[in-house]
UniProtKB/TrEMBL annotation:
NCBIfam families: PRK07564.1-1. The keyword Calcium does not apply. Belongs to the phosphohexose mutase family. This is phosphoglucomutase (alpha-D-glucose-1,6-bisphosphate-dependent). It comes from the Bacteria.
Length: 550
């Protein structure tokens, strides 16, 4: 075994997006592409302090190219003097499990291999992300430094050691580095058992409560099977599509009503179980479904917050709630009622890390099916599902009853996101630029027709100042806020790999319980029309309809 220095030249465009570097598998397969980015990570870590002898955590969602990437990263870690790498068996670790293991084993950080909800397989997407010692996604100052290194690289260092057996638990050496293959589930399952009332959930299943968890052939299957069927005693077959597949069975591993259509059909039909749930490619997202009711993720965050003390891990109450800017304001109403702070951050979990570390927030959430808490520094799909199970067990209420009661108490925030995927990037950028140009003149204007008009209170491009380190993030999404709190938000996705994806977010508040059963799209129709009028979205993108509505 020797450590080699291999000459390389920079690849353009290795700038991490909302959640790491995501590209087509074919792009990652170019010689040196993965190596360059990993070298940039090690150079950044080296500049920040010492990686020598430290521990890193490594794992991915099992998608195509996962195993190859892990072998490469292990040989590069050895060449950079890393002391030990903890890698999940079979190369598998969900994103929340990586966060959990980093924290539990006091590691320097971790590398997560995933493109999350993006499709996998040889023609699909791949991704890589660095997490810091708090277990969370690296903040912008680190991802910026990584990107800067990718632009000037001339070589990378790698051991010429042969491949490691990733399927056997135990320790192996590469050069002076120890590779410890760990069980992917056990640390995480232990953490969950400490947060939730497993006895009460076990009793719920014993009373005949029925559930379906759809693993979407992605990484959360093994976790859900071990915990929900194994530890909580749900009948075998409760967790379906539990085997991680390299191409996720050809589907989008994205837990929303469009991509988890089988689960929605089951929950809408005569044989619906009491409770349905699904998780995404890397296990950090969740969808909660009752009979004929898919719970909006923004509502799920608000409901978890309002009922936090139902779970033993949150018995003492919560310190605050943080939500991404486009997420509905349902959580704000709960925070106000509880007398705790509510923080509004840019899109992406990395912005929650400081708030959680400083003890300012206990719960965090995003409209994109992401919910989590201070227990780790990533959003956590299985955690959210266990929270709901705990809540159902503690209250004896169904999902529908819990949601209805919440709306009756706090009012309902009708909410929807319209995605225009893979549109022309030039057209999308021009649309956003024009929209930004219009913002100063929008405030005070009345928009919309007849009785469905809205007066604009605020129109801006969201800027966030982190209350802990005062770092400033600009251009985080155009928002048009009406005098009644209704909102239109537009931003471009930072996770797509083809062209640009425009996301249009719509929100309207309704206090009157007699009007809580409207169809969401109808309830939002006046705002949808205003968004079109202001942005010219359809003409700009050449699309008559969004590609996905959630
Ligand atoms: C999307 C979501 C965002 C989420 C991010 C990563 O980002 O909107 O809320 O944090 O994906 O989620 P964007 O930039 O495409 O809108 V995951 O589950 O991909 O790690
Ligand atoms: Co994800």
């Amino acid at each position: 075994m020797t450590i080699q220095t291999i000459a390389t030249t920079p690849f353009a465009g290795q700038r991490p997006g909302t959640s790491g570097l995501r590209k087509k598998v074919t792009e990652f397969q170019q010689p040196g592409y993965l190596e360059n980015f990993v070298e940039a990570i090690f150079l950044t870590l080296g500049a920040l302090g010492n990686v020598q002898g430290r521990t890193l955590v490594l794992g991915g969602d099992g998608r195509y190219f996962n195993r190859d990437a892990i072998q490469t990263i292990l040989r590069m870690a050895a060449a950079h003097g890393v002391g030990r790498v903890l890698v999940g068996r079979g190369g598998i670790l969900s994103t929340p499990a990586v966060s959990c293991v980093i924290r539990k084993r006091a590691a320097l950080g971790g590398i997560v291999l995933s493109a999350s909800h993006n499709p996998g397989g040889p023609d699909g997407d791949f991704g890589i992300k660095y997490n810091i010692d708090n277990g969370g996604p690296a903040p912008e100052k680190i991802t910026d430094a990584i990107y800067e290194h990718t632009k000037t690289l001339a070589s990378y260092r790698i051991s010429d050691a042969g491949p490691v057996d990733l399927d056997r638990i135990g320790s192996i050496r590469i050069e002076d580095m120890e590779v410890e293959v760990i069980d992917a589930v056990s640390d995480y399952a232990e953490l969950m058992a400490g947060l939730f009332d497993f006895d009460a959930i076990r009793a719920l299943f014993q009373r005949g409560f029925t559930m379906r968890f759809d693993g979407m052939h992605a990484v959360s299957g093994p976790y859900a099977k071990a915990i929900i069927e194994g530890m909580l005693g749900a009948p075998a077959g409760t967790v379906v599509n539990a085997e991680p597949l390299e191409d996720f069975g050809g589907h989008h591993p994205d837990p929303n009503p469009v991509n988890a259509a089988d689960l929605i059909a089951l929950m809408d039909g005569p044989d619906a179980p009491d409770f349905g749930a699904a998780s995404d490619g890397d296990g950090d997202r969740n969808m909660i479904v009752g009979r004929k009711l898919a719970v909006s993720p923004s509502d799920s965050l608000a409901i978890i917050a309002a009922n936090a003390t139902a779970a033993p891990g949150y018995r003492d109450g919560i310190k605050g709630i943080a939500r991404s800017m486009p997420t509905s304001q349902a959580a704000d109403r709960v925070a106000a009622a509880l007398g705790v702070s509510c923080f509004e951050t840019p899109t992406g979990w990395k912005y929650f890390g400081n708030l959680l570390d400083a003890g300012l927030a206990t719960l965090c959430g995003e409209e994109s099916y992401g919910t989590g808490s201070m227990h780790i520094r990533e959003k956590d799909g299985v955690w959210a599902v266990l929270f709901w199970l705990n809540l159902i067990a503690a209250t004896g209420k169904s999902v529908n009853e819990i949601v209805q009661a919440h709306w009756a108490r706090f009012g309902r925030n009708y909410y929807s996101r319209h995605d225009y995927e893979a549109v022309d990037a030039g057209a999308a950028n021009a649309m956003m630029d024009d929209l930004r140009g219009k913002l100063p003149s929008l405030a005070g204007q009345t928009l919309g027709e007849g009785e469905n008009n809205y007066r604009v209170q605020l129109a801006d491009d969201f800027t966030y100042t982190d209350p802990v380190d005062n770092s400033v993030s600009t251009r985080q999404g155009v928002r048009i806020v009406m005098t009644d709190g209704s909102r239109i938000v537009l931003r471009l996705s930072g996770t797509g790999t083809e062209g640009a994806t425009v996301r249009l977010y719509l929100e309207r508040y309704e206090a009157d319980p007699a009007r809580h059963d409207l169809d969401t799209q109808q309830a939002l129709a006046p705002l949808i029309a205003i968004a079109e009028q202001v942005s010219g979205l359809k003409a700009r993108t050449g699309r008559e309809q969004p590609s996905v509505i959630t």
